[in-house]
Amino acid sequence: MYSPDQTKALQKLTTGLMEKNSQGHITDKDIESLRDALRFHEHRYYILNDPLIADFEYDQLYKALEKLETENPALRTPDSPTQRVAKELTKEFPTVSHLVPMLSLDNSYNADDLVDFDRRARELAKVDVLEYCVEPKFDGASISLIFEKDMLARGATRGNGVQGDDITTNIKQIRSIPLSAAISKYGLEQLEIRGEVLMTKQNFKKYNDQLAEQNLPPLANPRNAAAGTLRIKDPKEVSKRNLEAFLYHVSHYTQLPGKDVDPILNTHSGCLTMLWELGFRSPLKEKKVLNGIEAVIAYCHEFEQQRDDLPYEIDGMVIKVNDIHLHDVLGMTTHHPRWAIAYKFKARQATSKLRAVEFQVGRTGSVTPVAKIDPVPIGGVTVGSISLFNEEVIKDKDLMIGDTVLVERAGDVIPYIVKSLPELRTGNEQKIVFPTHCPVCGDKLEKPEEEAVWRCSNINCEAQVVERIIHFTSKDAMDIRGLGEANIRKFFALGFLKDVPGIYELPFDNIGTLEGFGKKSITNLQTAIENSKAQPIHRLIYALGIRYVGETTAKTLAHSVKHLLDLKDYSLEELQNLEDIGPKVAGSVHQFFQNPDNIATLQKLEQLGLKLKNDKKDLVTGGNLSGQTFLFTGTLPTLKRSDAEAMVETNGGKILSSVSANLTYLVAGEEAGSKLEKAKKITSIKIITEAEFLSLIHH
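The structure corresponding to this sequence follows.
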């Protein structure tokens, strides 16, 4: 959309505007320049994924424009960047008619179907070879947009294909959709285009993580998340979901009087180029124009191998005859066009029978229902157990024992039940009864008002004790090798192990009588347990399994005290003053260290020889990296991430858990992801390689 010369000019304009704004010299004469600059940077961020200024700098220019438009409402334009977010809730979504029906595509699951499609199309077109445009089939929510006289006039859902819901206000929250597009440049007065709204895998995970922090059930998949968001009545909430859109089809246009329509519209690939030039995110880079169906089939197979590496979900490829004039020749049925077909990838959904629900107790007492289904292969994995998260999920999905259920597994996401199929019920199904008492110890379950999870509050519940011991000994905690989950469960069942301190009092004479425990394995286990006593206190803090305390937070807590038991004297306010510790984490830590049983456990561990005091070598205050913060992303060429982080701390630096203005260095390896993109927007962060990092260490 922007040439190199335009990019330089707009970046120069941006610099000038930022300088004027910082000096308070910006005036209403700068309004159009501000709009041009903000549109340019929206395009760099949301379309090209290559921002040229930091978020803060963009926000300052946005606020300046907002202030000027408030003071001069007559100068506000409908396509101004400030006009995306509406001031009020959407009361309803009126039904509107599409200019051209949104038909479905005929589906194919194998190469033979594509060969048949090609044969029929060639016969109707009376040609020997057809040119095809092949592009990804996005797994999102279909939309239709109408632009009139260069302005966005309407956005609608697919609906029944003939009519859909008017969601224009919500469409404006999607920043990869421009509010204006110079369609007149191509000789067009009106343009109807089709596309797909989606949520990237990264944004989907981030949103589900936020839901998990609030003890809310996760969204099912990115497709459902996108479709559901489009119907939210609060535009501000829609904006928070960070939806994106690909526009991939010109369905209708009218000619501008006295102007010729640009010949770029004669091919489908040309239409994708036009959409890209207009500022839309079209699949221009993903598409390929190919002659003959054999080349098409090869490209479909090639793209399927890349499926899991894409930042968004796709479920196949769409093959379209490239010559638009042939579309009229080939025509369409009442269901689908004859000039296009969808090649679907291997299914990641399957149906199965829900046979039972088991209730598992975690180390924090949370009771999780787990569905047991008839094992079924999905996406290359056989699935037999699926977490149902909490009681509300069971109710919302209307699940019953004996139901036929639809199961999905997308990418690396854990399997989940999409829905039950009540129309297949026989009357023999049984209601799922959530227990009122702990299925392990029998204590009454409790559910705090702010949570969706039932919990067993008995900290001596056997299930919790076992899970806590498993976590305590894990690799990133105390790292006691040889004492894995199977052995812990065996020792617990035999009465050799009853709690965490019991790890350091194991009866090795008795263990030596068990099958599989020879002299060498006993010696190795004794050595691993003894070595764990020397682990630094940040590992011990993490090993304790305090809710919301991960490895980075454990280090923050460890660096704040000389002795671990000092934390019992910290107030909530003092905990929240520590870096990256908010009210929820502070509350959990405070509650843990006010519990007499927990203090007694720590005192016993110290008596058994574990280190609760920070050695001087653990409290590095000098060193080459003193006062500097680091974060690692991607795969480093030679170092393990854990080793690199240890090097930072040994040299007086600090590891942060996320990208923020407090970060000094981001060390980026291969396949660096979202952290790198976010760091690029904060000018104070230095992005360096592993080699540059090592140079800092040895400087």
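Residues 106 and 455 are 49 Å apart (CA to CA).
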